[in-house]
Amino acid sequence: MKDPITSIDTRFSDPDAEPTSWQATQEVLENAQMTWVTTVRADGRPHVAPLVAVWLDGALHFTTGPDEQKAVNLAVNPNVVLTTGRDTWDEGVDVVVEGPAVRVTDRKTLERLAAAWRTKWDGRWVYEVGDGVFLNDVAGPALVFAVEPTKVLAFGKGTFSHTRHVPRPA
């Protein structure tokens, strides 16, 4: 998402709060060490799992094994919510990303994503690119998904703010 429409929801913000800028929101997504993904099971129950996500080209990317609950859920319902932030109530920004998860299989994109994953934490997220998947020595094949946001919420803490970022109409 580039240059989204940004607005503050005054109902849930301090009177003197300013909206969290898109740049600040994007920095949270780029620098997050841990992100939580919520998918929906076929029977409608939610499933939440922690993972390492990568922000690249306006989308948040994550991986899952083909037999993991996330992959099973996404085969039925591609809509997800990804959340990240801080576990403090008085500082930082929490971010929520909503949108459909779409499989990434293009080799060039997977190669760029594999390079981006190597920059997370201490470099231990090392993937090789296989035929439409990531490969590694530990977990086997991993499906890669991209979530181009339909909505991003940023919750500023300290001076509390509730900011909404949505894509501009095409």
From TrEMBL:
<feature type="domain" description="Pyridoxamine 5'-phosphate oxidase N-terminal">
    <location>
        <begin position="23"/>
        <end position="152"/>
    </location>
</feature>
<feature type="region of interest" description="Disordered">
    <location>
        <begin position="1"/>
        <end position="21"/>
    </location>
</feature>
<dbReference type="Pfam" id="PF01243">
    <property type="entry name" value="PNPOx_N"/>
</dbReference>
<keyword id="KW-0560">Oxidoreductase</keyword>
<protein>
    <submittedName>
        <fullName>Pyridoxamine 5'-phosphate oxidase family protein</fullName>
    </submittedName>
</protein>
<dbReference type="InterPro" id="IPR011576">
    <property type="entry name" value="Pyridox_Oxase_N"/>
</dbReference>
<dbReference type="InterPro" id="IPR052019">
    <property type="entry name" value="F420H2_bilvrd_red/Heme_oxyg"/>
</dbReference>
<dbReference type="InterPro" id="IPR012349">
    <property type="entry name" value="Split_barrel_FMN-bd"/>
</dbReference>
